[in-house]
Every structure is written in structure tokens, then in C-alpha cells.
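Tutorial, part two.
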Amino acid sequence: MHGTRLFTARRRRLATALAVLLVAGGFVGGVIAYFSGAAAAGSAGGAAGTSVNPGATPSSNANAGRSVTLTWPAVTLANGQPVGGYLVTRYEADSPYAPQLIQTGCSGTITALTCTEYAVPFGSWQYTVTPVIGDNWRGLESLKTGAVTIGAAALTLDRTVLNLADFGGGFSNATLTGSLTGFASNEGIGFKLDDPSSGASLAGSPATANGSGNASVSITLPRPSDGSHSVYAVGNAAYPAQASASVLVDTAAPTSSATGNDTAWHTSDVTVSLSAVDALLGSGVQKLEYRVDGGSLHTLREQVGRFPWEIALFAVEESLTGI
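Running the prediction step on this input gives:
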């Protein structure tokens, strides 16, 4: 009985020592204490402690396709034993510097010394790594990386003004072509008219961006009302990309008029004034052209003569420039 009480007392002393180490770990951070049974019969066992070294500042590199690659040096316990892994945290680079939900690629415990976070939201970010061992022990968080910036997506259309001819004289859809940049790698793409959420869906291709987050796009546009419209490209990542481009639809031809013209014979010079106006939401009038007695087209200028002139007026729309 006496031997049993002595053994119990020893166990209590060891438990007390272990508890002291655990409490110290709570105040210092990264301290590990453990109790091990002895291999030899009759041994009282042993207790030891170590600590997790602080994390080393990672390096960060922004890639095409809205991803960021991080690398960092290995961290060990104070006794040289490797840590179990690392936790990566992303922070806002500007006030209030709040921690963010890490995305696929760098979430959870990373056992390697590098990871790539995919579909990173637009903005400026800083990263840290925290070494861990087991479920509850971790070292001090590393210093933050320098700011890494993910730029906004962009949609560029080859043509930004459409006239009636682009809609087949009013009997077909128009086709918009252009380029898309700044999406996540292989992110899905949808197209909307005038509102990225509630706008009418537009048929278009491709269905996804390439590995660099870019695409050459082709969008089918049914004829909308005349005026300015916005075409949106919307992604489907956890933090979806979004880009827009404006297009002006002008299917109403300008109207032209003349003053000073009549059917009478004149023995002196006659001045005819020509003018043209485009619709309120149109692209504007580029130039006036006229034809005299069925001749070739000329740009507007004063005509003087003693004989009657037949004047045909043509108002050319701004959207026809270069066609």
C-alpha cells in the first residue's frame, strides 16, 4: 500500500509539472510540453518541453488569371523537429487591414513550403504564414508580405457604334467581337445587357476564360432600342469577375433639308442652304453630301449658276465612318 501511494504521488507531481508547462505555453505562445512513459520497467516516465519558432515572411507573386503564389522558408521547433504545416492568411493591404477568407490552393494546413491561391478577389493584399504542429499548437505569425495587387477585369469591343446595317437592315442580330482580360484562370463567362444581374442574357463565346484569365469574345446582340447600352461579361468564381463595355446603337438615319430652293427660273445667283440632323440618341451627323443633275457626290459647298440645278441631299451618319 505504501508503494502504491508513492507511485500515485509521483504521478501527481509529474501532472503538476506538465500543467505548469501547459499554462506557460498559454502565456508565451508556441510552447509544447509532453509526457512520455519510460521504456524500462519501474521507471517514473519523463517530461519535456519545446516551442514552435515563429513563421518566416513569405514572398508573394501575382500571376495572370487572378492567382497569387507564395513561398516561404521552413520553420522548426526549438529542438529542430519540423513543424506539421503552415496556415496562410490574406489581409487587406489598406485600412482596416482585415483578414480575409483564403481561397482554393492555400486554404487549410499547407504541408509544403509554397502554395498558389486561385480566384483571388480584386484589390491589394498582404499574406502571412503561421507554423503549426498538431491541432492546437502554433508559432507566432510571420510578418506580412509586401502588397500584391489583383487588377480589375476589362472588356474591350472592336466596335462601339452600331447602325442599321449591323443588324442586317433590321432583320438580324448584330455580332460584337472583342477581348476580355483579368478573369480567373478557366473562369466561366456569361454575357448580360445593361445590368450584370437582371439584364437580358446574351449568347456568346467562349464559355470560359483561358488559363491566363483572358479570352477573345464574340457576342450576339439582338437589336435593342437606339441609344447607349452596356454589355457585361460576368464570371462564376467564388469572387466572380465582372467587366463591361459601352455600345451606341443608332439605327435611325439623319434627316436633311434645304432652304432657298424653288421651281422658278432665276437670272441671278441663287443660294441654297442645306442642313441635316440626327436623332436625339444618335451618333451625330458626320457630313453632308450632294449631287448636281445626277452627277457624282460632293461634299457640301456653295453652287452658283444661271440654270436650274437639281440637288440631291445625303446626310452621312457618324457611325458610318470608315465603312
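The chain has four domains: 1-51, 52-151, 154-249, 255-320. In part three we will examine how such features are distributed along the chain.
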